[in-house]
Amino acid sequence: MKLAETDLAIVGAGITGLAIAQQMAARGRQVTLLDKGWHPGGRFSSRRLGDGEAVVEQGVSRFELPSAHRWWSGDGLRRLRPVAGGAEAALLESARAFIAVQAGGLSIINPVHVATLRHLPSGAWELLADDDASICRATQVVVTCPAPQTAELIAPAFPDRATELASLSYSSRWTITGSIDRRARVDVTRLVPQFEQIERGAVFAGASRQVLRLQAGDGWSVARQSHSPEEVADEMRKTLESAGAAGLDELRAKHWRYALAEAQERRYTGAIGAGLLIGGDWSEPGGLTQGVERALRAADRLGGELNAGAA
Question: What is the end-to-end Cα distance of the chain in Å, rounded?
Answer without folding.
Answer: 28
